[in-house]
Predict the 3D structure of the following.
Amino acid sequence: MSLTAGVVAVQGDVEEHAAAIERAAAARGREVAVREIRESGIVPDCDLLAMPGGESTTISRLLHGEGIAPEIRAHVAAGKPLLATCAGLIVASSDANDDRVEELGLVDVAVERNAFGRQKDSFEAPLSVDGLADDEPYPAVFIRAPAIDAVGDGDAEVLASWDGRPVAVRDGPVVGTAFHPELTPDSRIHGLAFFENDTASAAAPETAE
């Protein structure tokens, strides 16, 4: 069964996310077609969704202005997986700590923007991430990265921390990261979000024809 993956393309590393999804799918013998999302009407056809980084206030405004926001909420409500990275995590959160951002409320966390510094403070860190297929550290790239300030009392669970602060979380079918997993050839985060997330329904094992 071929899957359709959507990458929200209003900002961010769209091509890089598409390539990472394709690598993660190929590693599992799966077929995937990637579509870029800039308008409403595409998300309902997608089995998987990625929401890249960028500028959270701009992403929020465009998602709501184009009618994409309610479609993303419906996608997650249906149990389909979403990977939200960096500014995507801020928009997906329940509390962005910024009145300019209209959160989607898909991840029960509060976040702090630019928690690890500005662009000049970008860095790579070896992370231990719960749920990855092996124990090798994940080479996480942080660029103007947020951090998770608080995790709600519901189903949200921290998958990784850096410098004592949570930087990756899973809440049902949603995986959110403060870093940019698309900027490394290591596609394990995309694999975790889309193919190894037991609470997500869209990427279930392929059935025999």
Summary: The longest helix spans residues 14-27. The longest strand covers residues 165-171. The CA atoms of residues 50 and 83 lie 5 Å apart.
